[in-house]
Every structure is written in structure tokens, then in C-alpha cells.
Amino acid sequence: MTAPGRRSSTFTRLLRHGFTDASAAERLLDSAELAAVRNDPVLLEALGATADPDLALGGLVRLLEAQPAPTARRELLDTLIAAKPLRDRLLGVLGASAALGDHLARHPDDWRALVMYEPRDLHPGVEEFERCLDGAADPVSLRVAYRRCLLSIAARDVCGTTDVAQTAAELADLATATLRAALALARADAPGDAALCRLAVIAMGKCGGNELNYVSDVDVIFVGEAVDGADEGKALRAATKLASHMMRICSETTVEGSIWPVDANLRPEGRNGPLVRTLSSHLAYYQRWAKTWEFQALLKARPVAGDLELGEAYVAALQPLVWQAAERENFVADVQKMRRRVVENIPAAEVDRELKLGPGGLRDVEFAVQLLQLVHGRTDAGLRSGTTLDALQALAAGGYVGREDAGRLDEAYRFLRSMEHRIQLYRLRRTHLVPEGEADQRRLGRSLGLRTDPVAELNREWRRHTGVVRRLHEKLFYRPLLDAVAQLAPGEARLSPEAARERLIALGYADPAAALRHLEALASGVTRKAAIQRTLLPVLLGWFADSADPDAGLLNFRKVSDALGKTPWYLRLLRDEGAAAQNLARVLSAGRLAPDLLMRAPEAVALLGDGDGAGAGTGGGLAPRTRAHLEQEILAAVGRAENAEQAVTAARGVRRRELFRTAAGDIVSSYGTETRPAEADQGALVDRVGGAVSDLTAATLAGTLRAVVREGWGDTLPTRFAIIGMGRFGGQELGYGSDADVVFVHEPRDGVGEREAAEAAGKVVSEMRRLLQIPSADPPLLIDADLRPEGRSGPLVRTLRSYEAYYRRWSLVWESQALLRAEPFAGDAGLGRRFVELIDPLRYPSGGLPEESVREIRRLKARMESERLPRGVDPKLHTKLGPGGLSDVEWTVQLLQMRHGAEVPGLRTTRTREALAAALAAGLLSEEDAQTLDDAWVLATRVRNAVMLVRGRAGDTFPSDPRELAAVGRYLGYGPGHVGDMLDDYRRTARRARTVVDELFYADR
Question: How many other C-beta atoms lie within 10 A of the C-beta of residue 837?
């Protein structure tokens, strides 16, 4: 008897053998069922070797209790102790699967299936499983026979007799035998239907690929034909009944549970299509309507049941189409987009536990392998395997994948599939989530052979393998391209030039020969620089391929690398800061403007390193800097310069760098990165660009003014001088290609004659315009003063008193409207304020706008629409003058400002969106109308910015070149192949806005 307070020796031994509830285990060992063997060390050792000793012991006691007689119980115990094979198999299953333990308790004689294996039973195939299921006469007995077969598969699995690939193949073979048995039952129930038709069952997915899970939907497609002499319509109806009945036999729940769902949703048209089609109907669909993913799914198509001759004919007819899929437009992008969509649809709370679909999961390996098969299987029939690991091995043998990468992926895939198998085996439930409970993780880790610290080891190995997959699954596609040109160590199988060309074309490269030359120049040799490039390029190539112009991205990367390759920080920045490399790839392949700005001073690549925008205002990251910081830097550079030309050159250099920062930040925010999705608030993007470019223009003008005054007059100009922003500049809404609309105002200082002051002011304006347009590596800043009084016929610069006199006597209503955007930006701040005080009564007239002025504004707008729209342009796609475009929205808002600005302070702003929001707050228009106008204005502005970024020159319409149009679409968030959707969305948005404009601007209110 054990002394009080002390543990028994059995209790201690149980803990040592891995039991977690030793007290409960002690009670079970003391039960009558185990009386004969409770002290047998062999039993305890065997239980301790299982994944969950507590579960195994409990299952064993239940099995013994279920034996029909004491003699049967004694036979089981004697065999268990005497026969190690049975002991390992039975206890191994009981310790890994509560569900199979339940099965054995319900069918206590099934343990005999594990007593011994003939050599032929070690790796059974379809025929062996068919024999096991042969006696099943109804769905219930089929389920019992199925579980008995599953019991033997699980026993071989947990004992290590079969590896994960062999287990998956056996499960697929068992599924094949089960589908045949279920179809036989269905045919037996409806012999009349069976006599009318030929029905073939095509396995898809993991069953078709001979790599099934313990619990998984079994994906199928049905093909039907009429037997000779039968009516095709009747035959198809009969085939549909048979197929539906077969599916129910497998899927429905009975007293013995269900087997697994049979899923036919991969068929043409999915759930909306007929369950059974003829072969010719299948062929017609795939020839005309099928999407890329449907051909990808056909990689695993395999006839498994029914009329196998018809099934083989189906596969033979469709296989040629499968191997042409890589020639489809946007093929790679379609496959990658589908993969991203799968990840995006995972609930946020589950993504970190998702073994199959999450980042670095099983699906990443499968997608990468299938992508490569589709590209290269056209010319290499050895790659046409439906089994992932076999296909991966064939890809490595052919040089399509590096052997080392393939080996690491093989190892990771096997580990992750083993985890998936053991998770599902426990309850025989369809799940791909890693359990959160410590007990579940402990059992899972022990089942995989991790015994020292199962939970910690499991999580460490799981994260290690998913990390390998995440790093390799996309590089898998690109790295062999480098090996094909890098001329490294001999003996490694490499892509042939033709295979490399095929892969680059599939990725969207229009000139694969040039792309290979660039890769060779970048990655060849044994230098440290080449070695780093070989590490970077597989990832960069993927990002380039995700753009509308991969060729330009790669060419621009070569140019930047040639310019900066010898600097110590460049490649280190790209290698060590993931954001920098991805940001650079996006910027170089998104269009012409940003790369052109970068090429003029490649050291600006350093701005890309701080991808999150930290350091805004300090020179780091992609967030725009404040106007105060910009002015401080430019004025300091001007102060250091020896003359005005040198000073303005420095100012323009800062402007070029900051334009690049703004453009790069805009592109990265529009495209998104791996760690941060694209900016959802399009209005915020527009405001950010407009504010940044306007602040930069203001700072550049301030620096240029300081340089000109200092060179000509020293510290003080004879006249006070101010620069007033107009148009988009005044509204803080400048785009990348906008001129700076301004008016100049001056006021002679005390004691200075008006003539001397006017001459000085005129010289300042002329010199500023000249210096800002001198041809150089930096983009010019064009000053447009056409909105001044009398337009081009009037003087470039006037005194404040002259403006006052002109506006009092001669001002037209359009000039008052133009002054709505007037805002001082540079020069004498006091003079600027007085100019604003002068014009406020004009732009916000007391008592509102007279009806005659309203009619004049409407006449001007109508004349502008008819006269200024370029010929040959689709008005509905003209972002500035077309219906629902910028002009429509801005004139509507400005009319509201002039009518109500005197009474509504919020309307006294130069910014369109702010004025629109103020009008809404004042009840001058409905929330729906305000949103419609705002959406249209933001979209039109985004399109104009996109055109400038893509083409490198300003434009008000969508580009006609297909690649440029696609690049505009990518910037706006439209994926490959969705240019039509983009144009339709623009027309729809503009049409709605025009309806609101007609009501607010042209209707009497």
C-alpha cells in the first residue's frame, strides 16, 4: 500500500511514459478488462510510444469492453502482448485518432484487420481496396467497410510503414474504390437509367492527383453519353440521376456517419452548369469559355469510375487545351491573382493557423508547381504529373527548378502534409487549422516524432517550414532564369534558352531576348555584386511581372544598377530592407515619369528604404515633406550658391528629388506591398499628391525669387513683390504635369518711383521664368500668368493699386470666378494678404451672384465645352472637359461658392473638395450629390496623374497604347485583363456626375 502523500511507483512510471493524467490512467489500468496485463512492461512501453498515451489507453479499454465475450477479450489481449506488429498498429491508431477509436468500439471485431499484413497488403492499390469494399450492399455497410480500410491505412501511416506521399496515394486509391462501389449501388438501384447511358467519373483535385487527405471533399466531373440507339436527352437525365445518387451515397450522414462530400463544382459553369455533360459539350465549353484556373484544375483530371473508356477519351480531348493555357493573355497574373484572392478570403483570426491556404502553406507549393507545369509542360511531357511531389521532382530533374530549392520545398511540403494528415486523423474532420490547445499540439507534435518538447518543437518546425515555402515559392519561378544566364558551376541542370524564353513570355515580357541579356549583365560572374544580384533578382522579377510593363522594369533596374552598382550602400539597401527592393520594383515598372526622375540622380533610390514613410519632413521615406522644410532646404541652397543660375539649379535639383519622392510614394500606395495593402482612400491619395506638388512648387518659386533678387538688388528689391497662386496651384491641387498658374503683384517701397519699381518687378518675373526653364537634367517649371487682368495682352506684373482700379472698372465675371483659386504663395506676405482682402468682395459678392452673372457663367461653360474639346477625342473619356469631368465639377462648386460664399464661411477656400464638403454641411446639396461629384473629381484627377506617371507627359484622356492603358489600370487598382472594367467605371462615374451638374449648375435654383 502506498503511504499517504506519496505517489505510487506506477504513477511515476506513467508520467515518465508520457501520460498527462496519470491518476486516470492508473484507474484504467486497474480496471477488470486489463487485470491480466496491468503490470506488463511491454504494454506500458507501447502505450508510451503513441502520440497520446492517455487517448490510446482509454481507447483500448473501450475496445476491450466492447468485445462480445470474455474469450474474445482474452484473444485480443494475448495477441496484443505477443504480437508487436499488432501492438504498434492498434495502439498507434488509438493514440492518434479518437474517431477510429470510436469506430473500433462500435465494431469491436475490426481490430483483426490489423493483426498481420501480407507483403501485398503493405502498399495496397485500387484492386485491393475494391475487394475490401466488395461485400457492401448499402450505404451503411459501405461506410463500415470504408472505415475498416481507413483503419489499415492509418495504422501503416502512424507506424511509419508508409510515408506521407504513399499514405496520400492510398487514400486516393481508397476513394477511387469507394466511388466505384457507390456508383455500383446507384446503378443497382436504377437499372433502367444505367441501361440508357455511359457515365464516366473524372477525379479532380487531390483525388485526381493521387494525393488525398484523410478527410477532404472528393472533387469530380461527370461525363455522360447515350448508349447506341438511346435518346441523348433521356440518357443525360438518366446519367444525372445516377451521378446525384452516387454523390448522396458518399455524402449523406447515416448511423455510421458519412464518408466524405463529393464536390462537382469544378465542372463547367460550376453550380450553375449541368451536373453531367457530353464530351462534345465539355470540349466546346473549354474551347470558348473556360478561365485560366479551370485549365489549371484539369492538370489533375483522372478517370476513376464508371465508363473508363469514356473517361480516357475526355482526358485525351482536353489535355491539348491544358498545355495551351500558358499562351493565354495575363496567364501568370491570373494564377497569382487567384492565389492572392484565396489568402484574402481567409478570416483574419485564422490566417496564422491556416496550414493549407495561408502564406507559406501547402497551396503556395501547389500553385507554384502547377504554374511551372503549365508553362513548360507544353514542350516537356515528363512534367505532366498530377501529383505535386512527382511534378516537383520532374521540374528539378529538367532544370526548371533548382535542385536545392526543390529539395527544401519537398521537405517542407511533406512536413506540412504530415501535420495536415494527423490533425484530420484525430477526429476525422475536414480542417486545415493548426489547433490552439496545448494538449492538441502536444499530441500532434508527438505523432510527428517530436518527443523532447512536443509543443515547442512543433511550432518551431512548423514556422521553419512555412518560412521556407514563403521564401521559395515565388523565387521558384524566377531563379532558374538567372541560372540559365549566370554561367555558374557546371553539372547543374539548367533551363534551355527556349525554356527561359517560354517562361519570360508567360510572365508578360514582350522582348524575352532583351530580358535575358539584362539578366546576364546583372547576374553573371563571381563578384559579390553579382552574387547579391542573383539573390535579389528572383524576387524583383516577380514584382516586375506584376506590373503592366515588365520589360521596362527590368531595363530600368539595369540602368540604375549600372549607375549605382559600385556604391557600397545600393545593393545593401535592396538586400537588407525588403521595402526598398519592392518599392524600387514598383517604381521602375509603373511608367516613365518616376524612372526618368530617378535616372537623372540615381542616388534618390535611398528614399525608398523607409517604406512606411517614417521620417516625413526630415528627408527620409516616401511621405511628402512639409512646405516649411522644403523652403528651408531650398533657401539654404540658394544662400550657398555663387550666382542666381547656380542657385536655381540647386532649387530645381531639390524639386526633381521631391517630385520623385512624391511619385514613388503615390505608386507604392496605389499598388500596395506585401506587408501593406493599397491605399483604399482614393481621395487621400489625390490630396497628398496635390498638396505635395503644390508645396514643392511654392518652395521652388520662393527660392528662385530669393536668388533673382539677391543677384540683381542685394537684400532688398525696390518694390514689395508677391506671387499669387491661381488655378490648380492656388487650390493646392497641382498634378505631376501641371504648369504653375500665377499672377504677380508689387508695391513700390517708400521713396521709390513707380517706373523704377515696375522695371524691377518686370525684370524679376522675366528672370524667374528664364531660370526655371533653362534646359537641364531637371524638369522645367513653367510659369503661366495668363489669368492676369487682360490676359496675354496685359502687363505681366501690376501694382496692387492697378489691380484695384482694374477690378473696380473692368473686371468680368469669369475673372471673379478665376480669383476663387487665388492664394499667396511666395514673396511679401503682407502684400499677399492685402491682395486677398482686395479680391474677396469680388469672388464672394455680398448678397450673392446676380442672375445675369449666373447666366454669363453658364454661357461661358457651354461655349468652352463646344469649342475647346479636341477633335477626334471621345468626350465621355476626357477627364477635363468631358461630361462629368473636372471642369463640370469645379464650375458647379465655384458657382455655389460665388452665390453663397459671403454667407457661408466654409465656402471661402481655394480647394475644390473642401468647398464641396462645406456646401454639403450648409445644406446646399444632398449627401448623395456631394459624394457623386467628389467621386468623379477624384477619379478624373487620379486618371490625369496616372497618365503623367505612365507616359511621362501630361494628358487629359486615357492612352490609346494597350500597354500604357493597362499601366493606368494597374495604378487605379484594376488587375490584368480589366481595362474594359476601368473604362466602364469611369464612364459610369462621369455620367452620374453629369446628371448632378445638370441639376445644380444649369437648373435655376
Answer: 10
Give the pLDDT confidence score for residue 882 in this predicted structure: 93
Rounded distance, CA 681 to CA 439, Å? 45
pLDDT tens-digit map of 287-299: 999 998 999 999 9
Q: pLDDT per residue over 754-811, tens digit each?
A: 999 999 999 999 999 999 999 998 999 999 999 999 888 899 999 999 999 999 998 8
- Burial pattern 894-929, b for ≥16 Cβ within 10 A else e, equals bbbbbbbbbebebbbbbbbbbbbbbbbeeebbeeeb
Region of residue 700 (phi > 0: left; psi between -120 and 50: alpha; otherwise: beta): alpha
Residues of the chain above pLDDT 90, percent: 72
The arithmetic mean of pLDDT across residues 335-361, rounded, is 80
Q: Report, as an integer, the average pLDDT of 545-573.
A: 88
pLDDT tens-digit series, residues 949-988: 999 999 999 999 999 999 999 999 998 888 999 999 999 9
Which pLDDT does position 532 carry in this prediction?
82
Q: For residues 389 and 444, is the Cβ–Cβ distance under 8 A?
A: no
CA neighbours closer than 13 Å in the CB half-sphere of residue 32: 3
Nearest to 118 by CA among 128, 107, 108, 127: 128
- H or E stretch at 637: helix 627-640
Distance CA 413, CA 535 (A): 23
Q: Which residues pair with 745 in a beta bridge?
A: 722, 798
User: Alpha-carbon distance 402 to 398, whole Å?
Assistant: 9
Q: Of 938, 936, 892, which is closest to residue 915 (Cα–Cα)?
A: 892
Element (H, E) at 942: helix 927-951
Task: Answer yes or no: are the C-beta atoms of 404 and 476 closer than 8 Å.
Answer: no
Q: Which three cell numbers stand for residue 887?
A: 471642369
Highest mean pLDDT among 78-92, 108-122, 541-555: 78-92
SS (HEC) of 375-424:
HHCCCCHHHCCCCHHHHHHHHHHCCCCCHHHHHHHHHHHHHHHHHHHHHH
**Beta carbons within 8 Å of 414's beta carbon, 6+ residues apart:** 163, 164, 165, 389
Q: Per-residue b/e over 451-470, b at no fewer than 16 CB within 10 Å?
A: eeebbebbeebbeebbebbb
pLDDT in tens, 174-204: 999 999 999 999 999 999 999 999 999 999 9
**Secondary structure class of 225 (helix, strand, coil):** strand
Cβ pair 475, 539 in contact under 8 A: yes
Q: CA-to-CA distance for 285 and 493, rounded, in angstroms?
A: 39
Instruction: Compute the chain's Rg from CA coordinates.
Output: 38
Give pLDDT, residue 494. 64
Compute the distance between CA of residue 401 and CA of residue 413 in angstroms, rounded to an integer.
Answer: 15
pLDDT-derived band at 398, boundaries 50, 70, 90: confident
> CA 883 to CA 861: how far, in whole Å?
12
Residue 3 has a CB neighbour count (10 Å cut-off) of 7
Is there a contact between 744 and 785 (Cβ–Cβ < 8 Å)? yes
The dihedral through the CA atoms of 611, 613, 614, 620 has a sign that is positive
What pLDDT score does 817 carry?
A: 95
**C-alpha cell at position 142:** 459501405
Q: How far is CA 169 from CA 153, 162, 284, 387, 740, in A?
A: 10, 10, 32, 9, 70
For the CA atoms of 120, 126, 127, 132, the dihedral, rounded to the nearest 10 degrees, stands at: 90
Type of residue numbered 324: Q
- Locus of grid cell 490547445: 437
Q: How far apart are CA 585 and CA 587, in angstroms?
A: 6
990 falls in which pLDDT band (50, 70, 90)?
Answer: very high
Distance CA 346, CA 324 (A): 31
